[in-house]
Structures are given as structure tokens and as C-alpha cells.
Amino acid sequence: MESWMVQLLTIAGVAVGALASFVSTRFVDRSRWHREEALRWDARKLHCYTEFAAAIKQHINISDRICAGLGLPSGAQPLDQASGLASLAAAEDDLGIKWEQVLMLGSPDAIAAARDWRHAAWRLEWLARGLREGAAEYAQANSDIGSARKHFYTAARGELGITSGDIPELGQPPAWQVSDEKGAGSRPT
Q1: Which of 68, 74, 174, 175 is most deeply packed, by most CB within 10 A?
Q2: How far apart are CA 119 and CA 111, in angstroms?
Q3: Cβ(149)–Cβ(169) under 8 Å?
Q4: What are the helix and strand counts (H, E) for the chain?
Q5: Is the pTM for the entire model greater than 0.85?
Q6: Domain boundaries, the chain
Q7: What does the pLDDT profile of the chain (189 residues) look like in tens digits?
Q8: Which architecture characterizes domain 41-178 according to CATH?
């Protein structure tokens, strides 16, 4: 009888060991899968945010160049409105595609910040199209663009877990640009 009990305890010990091994392996594999999946999504989000930022910067730069061509106080290379509007329309099309990607992958904070940056860029676009006018309006549009840009990058960095600190003030425009004899104003960031 004792031999039978020893064998039963041995079998029970092997079964418990096998079950524990299975559970721990499953837990480790599941944790690894979750980490790898999170890394894949973070890489996709980073790509999405980078593409959106590049597209909106292109849109802003074209708008700013057209504003310079209209005589607004921009430090950008002037672009005449007639030829610039076609480029601006193409940039808006590209920006629209990148915006949809942000809507698909972004966090609510990043989406709201991207929307605000996009709205600020539209204000500059309206100046470029002649729907708004004036140096004060241009300066306000640039200020809004800079604030919205910083808010977007802060939201995106927070979502991606970048903890290196806050984005420093960019100090626009540079001192040499302000003291320019032509009195060139600030460029959008």
C-alpha cells in the first residue's frame, strides 16, 4: 500500500509540475506578445504622427510663402498666389490623408491636438487665399500655429511614452531675423 501511495504522490507531483510549467510558459509568452504588439502599435503611431507633422508643415510652408508674396511680413521665399494655390491644394490633399491616419491610430489627446494644429494652419491658408488680411492677423496665425504645434508634439510624445521632458520654447523668430533691415517678420514653425 505504501508503494502505491508513493507512486500516486509522484504522479500528482509530476502533474502539478507540468501544469505549473504550462501556466508559467503561457504567461511569459502572453506577456511577450503584448509587449511586441505594443511596440508594433507604437511604431505605427510614430510613423503616423511623423507623416502628419511633415504634411502639415508642407501645407504651412506653402501658405507662408504665398503670404510673403502678398506682402505680409514673412521671412519665407515669396510665392505668387496664382501658382501657389495649386501647390497649396495638393498639400491640403496630402494633409487630409495623413489626418485620417491620425484619426485611425491616435489617442483622443493627440487627435484633439492635431485638429487644433490643422485649424491654425487653415487660418494661415485663409490669409494666403486672400480671405483674411493684415499683418496682425498673420502674426496671430503664426502664434496659434506655434502653440498648436507644441501641443501636438506634447500629446504625441506623451502617448508614445517619451519621458525626456517638456519641449523647450523655440524662441521665434531668431534675433538676426528680427533685426533684418527689411523688417522680415516671423515664420511659422
Answers
A1: 74
A2: 12
A3: no
A4: 5, 0
A5: no
A6: 41-178
A7: 577 777 777 887 877 777 778 778 777 777 777 666 666 778 899 999 999 999 999 999 999 999 999 988 888 889 998 889 999 999 999 999 999 999 999 999 999 999 999 999 999 999 999 888 888 999 999 999 999 999 999 999 998 888 887 777 765 666 666 555 454 455 555
A8: Up-down Bundle (1.20)
Percent helix / strand / coil, the chain, rounded to 5: 75, 0, 25
Residue showing cell 519621458: 163
The amino acid that residue 20 corresponds to is A
Task: Say how far apart CA 158 and CA 153 lie, in whole Å.
Answer: 8
Distances, alpha carbon 123 to alpha carbons 11, 101, 163, 173, 181, in Å: 76, 22, 32, 19, 28
CB–CB of 137/109 below 8 Å? Answer: no
